[in-house]
Amino acid sequence: PESLSGNRYIRRETPDAADMMRERERIRASFDTQLRNCPHEVMIVSGEALSFDAGNRQHLTHAFLSQYTDDLTCLTYIRPPFSYMESWFQEKLKAGLAQPLPDLLFPNYRKRLHGLVREFGRTNCRFVRFDRDTLRDNSVIADFAHRAGITPVPPKQPVDNASLSAPAICLLYVYRTLLA
Q1: How far is the C-alpha of 60 from the C-alpha of 140, rounded, in Å?
Q2: Distance (Å, rounded) from C-alpha 99 to C-alpha 103?
Q3: Amino acid 127: pLDDT
Q4: Between 20 and 30 A from 44 (CA), which of 90, 141, 153, 174?
Q5: DSSP label at 15?
Q6: Contact (CB, 8 A) for 62 and 118
Q7: Residues with Cβ < 8 Å from 88, sequence gap 6 or more?
């Protein structure tokens, strides 16, 4: 965390519009350079937020990536709704952002994924149930690599994405909403 303290977005300072536009253009230029100079046959772009089509994000992403290739595949892992809601709530709660907004917890997959199908085409979209018991080697990384036809690079550190216990969730929720 100390190494990240210099990043104003992580410190939660509000940047002005000009700062955000400069940062957006810097990231876009960097991404463009990486795409143009990629020596590999397969390039993976991970974008969990892409399923949320705020500001026509899906259309803009497809248009941007289509400049580099006409072979785009969208692979989406879909959690059962309760699992999604539980995971989303825990992540927001751990980050100090959770508020009692049940409508935002519901995944509304039809609305979120329709835009991916519209932009990338049905034959270019693959939807996979996210269930560790059915994933290759019980790992989303291994499963993704297999489906993408690539050899996964072992992580440098063990992947630990353990869920909080119910008492821990309750305690953290009370602390974040009533005591903080």
Answers
A1: 27
A2: 11
A3: 94
A4: 90
A5: -
A6: no
A7: 105, 107
